[in-house]
Amino acid sequence: MYLNKVMLYGNLTRDPEVKALPNGTPVANFSIATNRVYKDRDGNKQEQTEFHNIVVFARQAEIVGQYLKKGSSAFIEGRLQTRNWEKDGVKQYRTEIIAESVQFGPRAGGSAGGNYQGGNDSAEKSSPATDESFSAGAGSPIDYPADEINPDDIPF
User: Fold this and answer.
1) Where are the alpha helices (DSSP H) in the chain?
2) Is the pTM of this model over 0.85?
3) pLDDT digits (tens, 9 = 90+) for 57-75
4) For 10-30, how does the pLDDT look when each residue is reduced to its tens digit (9 = 90+)?
5) How far, in Å, CA of 115 to CA of 76, rounded?
6) Which of 8, 10, 61, 88 could form a cystine bridge with 26, CB 3.0-4.6 A?
């Protein structure tokens, strides 16, 4: 068995562009920046930034276009795919991550993030305070109101 799996957590470098394929299926394109910090041979702290092209399809593309903006944090799970085409006689290549799952990170205003798992037509919301993937090493916990949240008050 072979494996093609990518997991990224980073910030959007631009607003998602949502378009439609000829058959009407929505598709969103955006990029995510990730970084790593390491020490070089001399012991100096270095930071390296990578930019990743993300493609999202169907209902998930609509949700991404509606809720994510430049600077938003997101956790992406998907697979690598390289496209090629010819332009002016020169073969062009582009490696992209086809997202199967997008989870929204915490927002600047302190509201909860959410996620969307590809494969079904409904958005599933989860609190980053209860999701270990967001709370591990995230710093101070978010203070949530003690009041019960009424699902009818949620606008989506």
Assistant:
1) 58-67, 132-135
2) no
3) 999 999 999 999 999 999 9
4) 999 999 999 999 999 999 999
5) 10
6) 61
Within a domain: 55: yes
Residue with tokens 């290549």: 93
Q: In terms of residues, how long is the chain?
A: 156
Supply the pLDDT for residue 29. 95
Say how far apart CA 65 and CA 152 lie, in whole Å. 23
- Token pair 């955006």 is found at 30
Any domain includes 137: no
Question: Does 140 map to a domain?
Answer: no
Distance from C-alpha of 156 to C-alpha of 151, rounded to nearest angstrom: 10
Of residues 13 and 148, which shows the higher confidence score?
Answer: 13
What's the token pair of residue 134?
């967001």
In a domain, 82, yes or no: yes
Q: Say if residues 105 and 134 touch (Cβ distance below 8 Å).
A: yes
Could you say which DSSP state residue 151 is in? G
Query: Whole domain around residue 119: which residue ranges?
Result: 6-128
What is the total count of domains within the chain? 1
Distance separating alpha carbons of residues 42 and 105, to the nearest angstrom: 35
Query: What separation in angstroms does the CA of 69 have from each of 43, 65, 82, 119?
Result: 36, 8, 25, 23
pLDDT score for 124: 40
